[in-house]
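ok so i was messing around last nite and threw this chain in just to see what happens. nothing serious, just curious
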Amino acid sequence: MGILNAALATLGTLALALPASAQSQASTPGSVVVTGTRGGAPEADTVIAARSKVLSRNYASSCAFMSSPNAAEDDVALAYMRDFGMDGGISDEAEHFSARAPDGDASNFKDPSSLTDPDDPRARDRNAPSVKCASSDRRFAAARQDILRKDKSLAQGFEALDRREYARAMQLLTTAYDKIGYDEAGLALAKMHLYGMGTAKDSREAIRWLRKVAEARFDPSRDAMKFNPKEAQMMSEKVEAAFMLARIYERGIGVPRDPAQALAWYGKAAEFGFVPARNVLGQAWVNGYGGAADGRKAIGYLQAAAEQGYVPAQYNLAKIYYNGDAGVARDLKQAGAWFNTAAKAGYPAALFAAGRMFDMGEGVPADRERAIVYYKEAAVKGDRDAEFALATFFYDGEVVGKNLATARKLFEAAARQGQVDAMFNLGAMELNGEGGDKDLAMAYVWLNLARQGGHAGAEAAIKAIAPMLTARDRATADKILKPAAKS
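result:
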């Protein structure tokens, strides 16, 4: 037991390292069935306001058809309204027109060459707010709808990319972006330049394309991502562009490292609705990335992400309260609450941390049996600290039955993941032949690795074991610790 004292003492502190129309049902006897013939599909040239890709806020200015979507403007609802002669009711605020004659009756149009109807209020006063669509808006929308209906460049570009026909893919994707401004095309072109697909690697050209996507028109009410904790890493094109820009500036990929730019783009990804970006920003502020640490800002970002169900943020928020980082007052109650929230989601490090609070009686009454439940679940998920903690229980035999073989296996599992105390304990058990065969060579190896990892007791242990090694033991250990360079 004495050889474990140095290792077990490390459990006194929590080391938490910082490291994307239904069909009608069949009628039954006696039922009344409403019958009728639905009309055909809407004509391709009929512009439906709220859901039309042509008339979205990305492509035109503030007309009546730019109003916020509502249930009455749903495509299915509008189709039924047309079928039953209810189209264009007083409650329908959206403007409808034919793409073939976007200004209404073409025979009455005064100047076919003019982009703006001279009778439109905006023609008289450019500063007047737009209440209805001007001629130029309707023409722009109609023309874009026509392009969208016929254009195949985006699909063909991705087909060429899949076939690794990079030159053709770049040409088609560029055409698609120039015609419509597809975010998908811009993002693909950025990646091609960044990774050198069919062209020389060019970070600056990649940045240019990424900025085109990230800085394109954005409507928070419509374009912001809806976060789903079960698919936390899902990204829209805008989010991915902003996140890539942040990584480029953070890591200095082809450009000088720039923490300010990195934080700005992480912030933009967060604005677009990407909750994991808030977790990154919280970590940045607690660690003082790009400036002085600021616990208040870190808590703000992490709590916003944690409350939306992002589990890593819940764990990181708990760590701040547990450690009292960045000037935040230590609060074991808050720490325990957030550790438990993340633990319930199965987050391995949080399972270990919650278990350790029960083990040590921090903020809660000590309950070692309950701690073991948390440790076991975390160990099953591969958490190295939980493997180490669980191993000590089997070594001591105080709460569970003493089992040195199991303890040795758990110490080895943790040691192979770089857990320094487990390296030391495994070396000690192999030196003494506990839980398995005595192996001086491997004991020497693990103690050396523990020393490299900073274990305080490893140096003395190595000096004690060195004289016991045979020439064969030394050769075996050196083969592992000093591998020959590959030719």
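not much to say yet. The chain has a mean pLDDT of 80.
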